[in-house]
UniProtKB/TrEMBL annotation:
Molecular function in Gene Ontology: metal ion binding; rhamnulose-1-phosphate aldolase activity
Gene that this polypeptide is encoded by: rhaD
Protein name: Rhamnulose-1-phosphate aldolase
InterPro entries referenced in this protein's UniProt entry, alphabetically: Aldolase_class_II_sugar_metab (IPR050197), Aldolase_II/adducin_N (IPR001303), Aldolase_II/adducin_N_sf (IPR036409), Rhamnulose-1-P_Aldolase (IPR013447)
Protein species of origin: Candidatus Galacturonatibacter soehngenii
Annotated residues for binding of Zn(2+): 140, 142, 211
Length: 276
């Protein structure tokens, strides 16, 4: 099958464009990766390029040995992905040790995978393990309202989770595990990858202070929907805080417990603390 006609490539391109349309990808901001299924690798195998040279990932991901990923290119603009996908995205193969990758398709005008490849792959490695292989998508976006909140809320998991849950009733159902938060760090390297992957053991959402968000999910719809829901909730919180620093009424801890029962989700008590 022609690579650009395969369903997973079309889904990847649509997701990237949806994110661009929502204003989350100024310039080259953000990146996306997808772990191919064995039958997808097989269906495109004849169309892959001859293997080029192995390059260092910048992190060790033995749990991903031999896997193939579709990834966005470093410095490529999300707004161009739909227009010229072969120049903006690539399929990479991971070596048998999980320390090197090589490009097998795409990036036809040159370039390398996203500078956040260490974070993407370390997140994939964790998620492949903790979800029994179910999660395949890692998405990083520069979501405006979440970024704004990292200047005014304390940078901890409890406060972010609770405030986001309170802003929209569906939130605790969409991300019952909550969200993790990391204070500002230099992006693009191994250190921030390690920190983010630690959060991904527990959460499907990791917030990078003054930078953006990472989401993990089983497919493009679920991962995009998760990013969209968290960011929408952040937008409501920004609007609420712009009107008044105080809420006149809100969803209370017992309301969340009642919701959890009816919607059959478990909401950790750590987020249902009593406020002053
Ligand atoms: P890349 O263009 O290398 O993917 O970097 C964009 C970005 O958002 C870095 O955090
Ligand atoms: Zn970024």
């Amino acid at each position: 099958m022609r690579i650009l006609e395969s369903k997973f490539v079309k889904g990847f391109i649509k997701m990237a464009d949806d994110g661009y349309q929502l204003g989350w990808h100024e310039r080259n901001g953000g990146n996306l990766s997808y772990r191919l299924k064995p039958d997808e690798v097989q269906s495109i195998q004849p169309r892959l390029n001859c293997p080029g040279e192995w390059l260092e990932i910048g992190a060790e991901v033995p749990g991903l040995a031999g896997e193939y990923f579709l990834v966005t290119g470093s410095g490529k603009y999300f707004r161009n992905i739909i227009v010229d996908p072969e120049a903006c995205i690539a399929i990479i193969e991971i070596d048998e040790k999980g320390v090197n990758y090589r490009i097998r398709w795409g990036l036809v005008e040159g370039g390398t995978p996203t500078s956040e490849l260490p974070t993407h792959l370390m997140n994939h490695e964790v998620k492949k393990r903790v979800t029994n292989g179910e999660h395949r998508v890692i998405y990083h976006a520069h979501t405006t309202n979440i970024i704004a909140l990292t200047f005014v809320l304390p940078l901890n998991d409890e406060v972010f989770t609770r405030e986001l849950w309170e802003m929209a009733t569906e939130c605790p159902v969409v991300f019952p595990g909550g969200v993790g938060v990391i204070g500002w760090m230099v992006p693009g390297g191994r250190a921030i990858a390690i920190k983010t992957a630690q959060l991904m053991e527990k959460y499907d959402v990791a917030i990078w202070a003054h930078h953006g968000m990472f989401c993990s999910g089983a497919d493009f719809d679920l991962t995009f929907g998760l990013m969209h829901t968290v960011e929408k909730s952040a937008e409501i919180l920004v609007k609420m805080l712009s009107m008044s620093p105080h809420k006149l009424q809100t969803i209370q801890p017992q309301n969340f417990r009642d919701l959890a029962k009816d919607f059959k989700v478990s909401l950790p008590e750590q987020f249902l603390y009593e406020k002053e």
